[in-house]
Write a structure and sequence with these properties.
The protein has strands spanning 3-9, 12-13, 22-27, 31-41, 54-59, 64-67, 76-86, 89-100, 115-119, 152-154, 159-162, 165-176, 182-186, 188-190, 199-200, 205-211, 218-225, 232-237, 244-249, 254-259, 268-275, 280-284, 287-291, 302-310, 325-335. It has 336 residues and is mainly β. The strands form four sheets. Strands 9, 10, 11, 12, 13, 16, 21, 22, 23 and 25 form a ten-stranded mixed β-sheet that branches.
């Protein structure tokens, strides 16, 4: 006897609006199972199941349909699946995505907020004033960080201003990392150790506009850092998973993988995060896409980093080319 899932809805919803799930199952022969329901998991596998289940359900070749009770979800991308329990145990069926995104593209989290810090990359860098580029305390060796699956070796000359954009370039280097792998020289900018010493704090809304690379092995990031427990990944991206943006709160662990399909013209995308003490809320091209329900500590603060890393092959492939790889940032703006 086998049970097959013929359908599971919904595939999408809006934040705070109650929805119910409907499953369609069939079996190769009629069978009565103890329980049928729909499970939901967030990015860290936290259970957020639909309430209501069918008890002593009879599933036959002609099909079985069941609708759960409704519930609401925060913005985010969830994994959902129908399941059944019988005397042999728990049986999850095919997994699908539930995408909870604000309606339309009209959300403007900066509305009513004051611009408190901005970098539009329209003038040459004055190194040391608001940005530094030669090392990061997030990197074990200052200029490189092989323990965290990166081939990076920071080179100050691999960041430049061109056409009103900050351009980060990665290319094979001559250095050998401590793990024996060949490094890639690449670029990073950070407000750490700068004279301004700008830090993000609770209540700030940070927005960036970036051009994502297409070369496998690229690992662009916009993130915060002042030490362990202070990292917010505004975005991370891996071209081997071209439809996913990674959004992670390492302060109060929460994570989401937001589907971006298709990318905007020229691979440019606008991403923002509102850093609240009860929730960090992410926006992509004007739509609310993720509310982590965790936020940051009221006394939290951290420096801002923008960089292009190169994957070492542990979790994502190494580059398939020796050609230079680029990542660009159009602006970084902070509102309060």
């Amino acid at each position: 006897m086998s049970v097959v899932q013929d359908g599971l809805t919904p595939s999408g919803a809006h934040p705070g609006k109650a929805v119910a799930a409907t499953m369609k199952l069939r079996a190769s022969e009629c069978v009565t199972v103890r329980r049928v329901g729909v499970a939901v998991r967030d990015g860290l596998e936290k259970p957020l199941d639909y309430p209501g289940a069918a008890m002593n359900a009879r599933i036959c070749p002609g099909g079985f349909t069941f609708t759960t009770k409704p519930r609401t979800f925060r913005a985010g991308t969830y994994t959902q699946y129908a399941y059944y329990d019988d005397e042999t145990g728990h049986h999850p069926l095919a997994k699908t995505k539930l995408r909870v995104v604000s309606k339309g593209r009209s959300v403007d989290p900066s509305a009513g907020r004051k611009l408190v810090w901005a970098e539009d990359f329209n003038s040459p860098f004055v190194w040391g004033r608001r940005w530094t580029r030669d090392a990061s305390s997030a990197y074990e060796y200052g200029t490189h960080n092989p323990r965290y699956f990166k081939l990076d070796w920071l080179n100050p000359h691999n960041v430049r201003i061109a056409g009103g954009k900050a351009v980060f370039t990665a290319r094979p280097g001559r250095q050998t990392l401590e793990n024996g792998l060949q490094a890639w020289e690449t670029g990073l900018i950070t407000t750490e150790r700068s004279r301004e010493g700008f830090r993000l704090r609770p209540g700030h809304y940070l927005e960036v506009r970036v051009k994502l690379p297409t070369a496998v092995g690229a690992w662009p990031s916009v993130w915060t850092w002042i030490g362990d427990g202070h990292e917010i990944d505004v975005l991370e991206y891996h071209p081997d998973a071209p439809d996913l943006l990674e959004m992670v709160n390492h302060v109060r662990e929460a994570a989401n993988y937001h589907v971006i399909k298709p990318l905007g013209k020229g691979n440019w995308v606008r991403v923002g995060v509102l850093l609240g003490t009860r929730s960090a809320d992410w926006y992509v091209d004007g739509a609310l896409v993720y509310q982590d329900g965790r936020g940051v500590d009221p006394k939290w603060s951290a420096y801002l980093n923008v960089n292009l890393s190169i994957s070492s092959g542990t979790h994502h492939p190494v580059p398939q080319t020796k050609d230079p790889i680029t990542f660009s940032a159009d602006y970084v703006r902070v509102f309060r």
